[in-house]
Specification:
Belongs to the 1-acyl-sn-glycerol-3-phosphate acyltransferase family. This protein is an alpha/beta fold. Helices cover about 50% and strands about 15% of the residues. The protein is built from twelve helices and nine strands.
Length: about 400
């Protein structure tokens, strides 16, 4: 069976120079470290402490801090790597509660949905239905748990109970929500496409060349559970030029040169209610996606371009500076704490050895050898040449 490959136009992969590789690694380190700092300092506050009193405000606080971190990614893509993100189709309104479905071309599709969410001020409220292995990633996986992403094993008999339980917690219309899922269930490859086409031919379904047949159970359950609190469904179709990137291609700016996103807003009244009808509706939507991607490959763009504007460079810079400041400040604070722990350990060791003696406020009270403050440190010991010599030795080891 035929598998349609993207056409190669004048665009080429940029070479992976040492400078681009270093820049990609540095950017990833900054993003991982800021994610870790957000997790340590604000994740527990938002997801645990405030949640004891209000789930609504817990989500708002968590979304505020993580939204600022998520905004660093579009800054990397569009401003540092100069990737051109082109939106087409409809201009969707800001502030809606939506279910977002997209085709799955590569491992970075979900990151580019942040570019759309950022333009609508919803980058902190976007949640994903994603495979469970991603929830086990260090740092990122922990953040996914705090952000209430829904993990699936991609086996409906295993996933249904947990998925419906998680969806039931997202029904409050006061909480902003962008719930994103990829009905294909996996990213597109030629081998997967051939298997999908074979299954479609054997079961009388549309034979698609640019997308896989969607798995309908997860979408149907999401729509059923949330229909009463949603405003619309957004149907997003993503195409890349010159080709689909890997994660490191994306981070280092080698590929893609352009990301095209076609967005269509579908009112809930236009979507049927029964599971069988929703299944047929979803199949038809992916048939339309296949046609859109066919036109994209032949023409190099989706219809009705220009539905969204460019990101503000000033806002991106301010957010980046704020993120860098938080990272620098928290790193400095942790360094100071670590150094103070080292000084305290040395003082306690010398006291245990009987080389220095602290001061007690009364007989039988604990002796105090040191008090450490933000800007000053006070050390207490006997006024003798011997103990002053030991103090000099402590400070020498500390330095």
């Amino acid at each position: 069976m035929e598998v349609q490959r993207p056409s190669n136009d004048a665009m080429k992969h940029l070479p992976l120079t040492p400078l681009r590789a270093i820049r990609g690694v540095v950017c990833l380190l900054v993003l991982v470290l800021t994610a870790f700092m957000m997790l340590v300092y604000f994740g527990f506050l938002g997801a645990v402490i405030i949640r004891l009193f209000s789930i609504h405000y817990s989500r708002r606080v968590t979304s505020f801090f993580y939204g600022n971190w998520i905004a660093l990614w579009p800054f990397l893509f569009e401003k540092i790597n100069k990737t051109k993100v082109i939106f087409s189709g409809e201009t969707v309104p800001a502030g809606e509660r939506i279910l977002l479905m997209s085709n799955h071309r590569t491992e970075v599709d979900w990151m580019y949905l942040w570019d759309l969410a950022l333009r609508k001020g919803r980058q902190g409220y976007i949640k994903y239905i994603l495979k469970s292995s991603l929830m086990k990633l260090p740092v990122f996986g922990w953040s996914f748990h705090i952000l209430e992403y829904i993990s699936v094993e991609r086996k409906w008999e295993v996933d249904e109970l947990n998925m419906r339980r998680m969806l039931s917690t997202l029904k409050d219309p006061k909480d902003s929500l962008w719930l994103a899922l990829f009905p294909e269930g996996t990213d597109f490859t030629e081998q997967k496409c051939i298997r999908s086409q074979k299954y479609a031919a054997e079961n009388g379904l549309p034979v698609l060349k640019h997308v896989l047949l969607p798995k309908t159970k997860g979408f149907c359950a999401s729509l059923e559970e949330l229909r009463g609190s949603l405003d619309a469904v957004y149907d997003v179709t993503i195409g890349y030029k010159p080709s689909c990137p890997t994660f490191f291609d994306n981070a280092s700016g080698v590929n893609p040169s352009e990301v095209h996103m076609h967005v269509q807003r579908i009112p809930l009244d236009n979507i049927p209610t029964s599971e069988d009808e929703v299944t047929t509706w979803l199949m038809n939507r992916f048939h339309l996606k296949d046609q859109l991607l066919s036109e994209f490959d032949s023409q190099g763009h989706f219809p009705r371009e220009g539905s969204e504007g460019d990101l503000s460079t000033l806002e991106c810079l301010l957010n980046f500076v704020a993120g860098a400041f938080v990272l620098g400040r928290l790193t400095l604070d942790n360094s100071l704490v670590a150094s103070e722990v080292g000084l305290t350990s040395l003082i306690m060791k010398f006291e245990q050895l009987g080389r220095i003696h602290g001061v007690a406020i009364c007989r039988g009270a604990l002796s105090i050898t040191h008090l450490l403050f933000a800007d000053d440190s006070f050390l207490f010991l006997h006024a003798s040449f011997q103990e002053c010599g030991y103090l000099k030795q402590i400070l020498g080891l500390y330095e």
